[in-house]
């Protein structure tokens, strides 16, 4: 019986060991958080005011469009979304009506490609001028003529029936998803970027000093997250990029504006080391900000996700990316809002999903020899193989190390089950051997 007891203890111990090892991790989740914005330079849930100056790509607004100054839309013919039945992209989409009353004197909104208007009450669509000549489409206030102001002026002739009343975009569904994405990204578990001063000392979130230069290094091949407060952004003299964001090395900047009541006037620091070519791989996430104004400073490199915010821009510098907001004022009367350059967000951000609740409270991902499939289909391991963007595997996607790397899909329980089975078999063999010895005594 002593041998039987020992075998039983071995088997039970093996099974207990297997039971305490973390079970399979849930798969990391990759998402293009701005996909529902359809590539528009400005994608707004409700009202948009156009005052100054231009957008290289298209503008889509779910509510009314207020003409408060002269503005150019899709000036680089960058819009790509084409409404069903149309032959040209929808460069300007208005879910509501057009408000011509703000500046009745001189304002002209020039649009390259088509315009779509959900409510044509108070508006008139004309493809003929005062001489009954066939001309490019103008949208003017009801009761006024072809060249009256304010007006929307197309660079081509659009069929009148195509203008409206119709909106090809479901803004409510889009913003439900955009808000969910913003919240998920604010809680994203990925590689945390550390702020450092010009002497190499770490600067924690919320502790950037006035006129301090901040430097950041990115880990290649993974999603990088920089967490800052609004005060941090306004205190920085420069934000220096030691590495450039790219398709496989995107940067998510989560901005906390809670200490100012979720209202923020942004004095944009110079983003040294990057420019327009890197902008498609940078996302500024103002998840819960209710009012966001670009007040002064340098250009914003990257897209702005502020789905709850009343957004305005009175800085003559540029935004190089997309703007997602609840309401938007692009410039103000007498204030130059700068340009919106067409650098739409073009990366997928990857965050760890929830860990299996049966995993004994462990949130650590496997860190040895994990293999992760990148969006291109390339694979890179934690052993130092060459990664995307020419990166070294030691810095590569999901390599070894406990620094918040994204988990590879699924730890494997099979090895532990096999180990337990082998130990049980060893116990059984011991029992048989013992029985034979006793039979021969």
From TrEMBL:
The chain crosses the membrane at residues 415-435. Residues 372-395 have a biased composition (Low complexity). Residues 351-403 are annotated as: Disordered. The keyword Ion transport does not apply. This is Choice-of-anchor A family protein. The keyword Magnesium does not apply. Residues 359-371 have a biased composition (Polar residues). Residues 33-342 form the Choice-of-anchor A domain. Pfam families: pAdhesive_15 (PF20597). Keywords: Membrane, Signal, Transmembrane, Transmembrane helix. It comes from Glycomyces tritici. Residues 1-26 form the signal peptide.
């Amino acid at each position: 019986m002593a041998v039987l007891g020992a075998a039983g203890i071995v088997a039970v111990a093996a099974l207990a060991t297997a039971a305490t090892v973390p079970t399979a991790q849930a798969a990391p989740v990759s998402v293009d958080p701005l996909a529902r914005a359809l590539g528009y330079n400005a994608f707004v849930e409700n009202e948009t005011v156009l005052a100054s100056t231009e957008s290289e790509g298209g503008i889509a607004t779910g509510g009314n469009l207020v003409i408060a100054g002269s503005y150019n839309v899709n000036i680089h013919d960058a819009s790509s979304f084409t409404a069903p039945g149309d032959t040209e992209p929808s460069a300007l989409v208005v879910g509501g009506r057009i408000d011509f009353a703000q500046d009745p004197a001189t304002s002209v909104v020039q649009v390259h490609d088509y315009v779509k208007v959900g409510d044509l009450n108070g508006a008139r669509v004309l493809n003929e001028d005062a001489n009954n000549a066939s001309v490019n489409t103008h949208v003017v206030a009801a009761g006024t003529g072809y060249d009256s102001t304010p007006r929307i002026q197309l660079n081509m002739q659009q069929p009148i029936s195509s203008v409206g009343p119709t909106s090809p975009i479901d803004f409510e569904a889009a913003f439900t998803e955009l808000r969910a994405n913003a919240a998920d990204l604010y809680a994203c578990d990925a590689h945390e970027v550390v702020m450092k001063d010009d002497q190499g000392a770490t600067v924690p979130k919320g502790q950037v000093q006035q006129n301090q230069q901040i430097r950041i290094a990115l880990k290649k091949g993974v999603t990088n997250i920089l967490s800052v407060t609004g005060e941090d952004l306004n205190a920085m003299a420069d934000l220096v990029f030691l590495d450039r964001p790219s398709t496989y090395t995107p940067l998510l900047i989560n901005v906390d504006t809670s200490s100012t009541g979720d209202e923020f006037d942004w004095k944009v620091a110079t983003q040294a080391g990057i420019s327009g070519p890197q902008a498609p791989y940078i996302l500024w996430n103002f998840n819960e900000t209710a009012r966001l104004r670009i007040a002064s400073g340098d250009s914003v490199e990257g897209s702005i996700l502020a789905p709850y915010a009343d957004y305005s821009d009175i800085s003559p510098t540029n935004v190089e990316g997309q703007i997602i907001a609840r309401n938007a004022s692009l410039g103000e009367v007498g204030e130059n809002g700068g340009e919106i350059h067409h650098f739409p967000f073009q990366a997928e951000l990857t965050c760890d999903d929830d860990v299996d609740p049966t995993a004994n409270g462990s949130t650590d991902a496997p860190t040895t020899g994990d293999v992760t499939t990148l969006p291109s289909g390339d694979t890179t391991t934690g052993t130092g193989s060459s990664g995307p963007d020419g990166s070294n595997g030691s810095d590569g996607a999901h390599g070894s190390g406990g620094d918040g790397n994204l988990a590879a899909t699924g730890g494997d329980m099979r090895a532990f089950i096999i180990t337990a089975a082998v130990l049980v078999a060893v116990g059984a063999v011991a029992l048989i051997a013992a029985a034979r010895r006793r039979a021969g005594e």
